[in-house]
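Sequence only, no structure available. Ideas?
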Amino acid sequence: MSTINPGYDEDVYGWAIHTAELLRSNKMDEVDFENIIEEIESLGRSEKHELTNRLSILITHLLKWQYQPMMRGHSWKYSIVEQRDQVKSIFEESPSLKSKLEEILKLAYKFSLSKAIRETGLEAKTFPQQCPYSFDEIMSDKFYPEAQ
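Reply:
I predicted one. Tokens follow.
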């Protein structure tokens, strides 16, 4: 076992490695459980944030695809495909996030709407105030919304 014993506030990586060694050695009385709990909660928030971000990028490109058909290009299509793959991967690693899907989708659309307005230069009233696509549509490899 390592002789280095960094504190959580000094070196999170070193602390994590040392804590893992303590757990493997079953030295529970030396384990910093308070910070382990914080890190586990943070990990969960991070996964949720990553899913929200990926869905936001995906929905932004679907909106741009629908509302700026003359600007469609390979990069938008590649981004849509890539984000779908990333979302699928997140759900494979963290299937319990599906229980938060409605909340995550609402937040992702809020971010998407803001991005679409900035990136297209179109007025806010151009876009629906609520997500016009179902999750199944968003994730379908065959779904590309019709032009408005």
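The chain is about 65% helix and 0% strand.
Hope that gets you unstuck.
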